[in-house]
Amino acid sequence: MRLPSSSLKSLGSCLNQRRLFLTCLQSVRNNSSIFGSQFKDNSTQVKDDTKRILHLNVALGNDSLVAEGARTFLSSLTSSYSVTELNLWKQEDMIHYNADHARSKMSVLKGFASEGDAELISPVLIAAQNINLMDMVVVSTPMWNYSVPYVLKQYMDIVVQPGINFRDENQSSLDHLRGRHLVVFSSAGAVFDENSVRQDFMNPLLSQVFRLMGFDKQEFVFIQGTSTRSREEAVMWTKGEAVRVAGVVNDSIGVTDDKTKTVI
């Protein structure tokens, strides 16, 4: 059981303070919460001034429209930042999680965890703490069956943990995690509008889950009708939207004269 190598790199020197992260195994009882208790967030104890971006890459290829959009957006940012990319189709970039982990998690939250439970759930809690270190999340994903591909849903199910990423008692974001950016590039073969019998569950799901974690400054580029649009027109539109969204984010960050990028 280990944290994916890319996540380990993104934490850098912060992982030298692993003991701080592991104290999140402490749980706080709350009778009004869904889980009955919650973990403790310690990310503020290791956060520094580096601007960090997490790119959740679910694109099916480097030449896909969502991949083009994400690349154009990142290259159009004008502030200094460090990018960690997780390709969720790669096993080494995914956190292992199964029914045993879920049982260990509940044992910890209920206050009767064994040493084995704590060890098993530790990489999951570190991953949850890691996303708290991010100032922005960029998602590039196609639509599958009106929602997100299973690897993206699995990632969200693993890293979103009560007390670490959100306030469980009232299902709201933690005060110190609010004001962060979410940028989503998504695509669908069909067109979704008010006259369609189809419904987009993908973007509302991403919006709600990441808003819960404090990523409440949200921008969505939904590339629709890809089955009937020409490649040239779709790429041009996507890149134009990516530049526009980058402008919105640049204005929000308020830094325009220092462009330094580190990709991990």
Which features characterize this protein?
single chain; 264 residues; alpha/beta; six-stranded parallel beta sheet; two-stranded antiparallel ribbon; disordered N terminus
Helix/strand layout:
Elements: H1 5-11, H2 18-22, E1 28-29, E2 37-38, E3 52-57, H3 65-76, E4 81-87, H4 99-110, H5 115-132, E5 136-142, H6 150-159, E6 166-167, E7 172-173, E8 181-187, H7 202-212, E9 217-223, H8 231-253, E10 261-263
Parallel strand pairs: 3-4, 3-5, 4-10, 5-8, 8-9
Antiparallel strand pairs: 1-2, 6-7
General form: globular
Radius of gyration: 19 Å
Provide the succession of SSEs. HHEEEHEHHEHEEEHEHE
Secondary-structure class: alpha/beta
Poorly predicted runs of 5 or more residues: 1-22, 27-37
For the sheet with most strands, the description reads: 6 strands, parallel
Distance between the termini: 21 Å
The percent range for helix content is: 25-40%
Which strand-content bin applies to the residues? 15-25%
> Major sheet: order of its strands?
9-8-5-3-4-10
Helical stretch count?
A: 8
Mean pLDDT level: 81
Secondary structure tally: strands: 10
Q: Could you characterize the architecture of this molecule?
A:
- Helices cover 37% and strands 17% of the residues.
- The protein has eight helices and ten strands.
- It has a six-stranded parallel β-sheet, sandwiched between helices. A two-stranded antiparallel sheet has the order 1-2. A two-stranded antiparallel ribbon has the order 6-7.
- Strand 3, helix 3 and strand 4 (81-87) form a beta-alpha-beta unit.
- Helix 4 packs across helix 5.
- It is globular, with a radius of gyration of 19 Å.
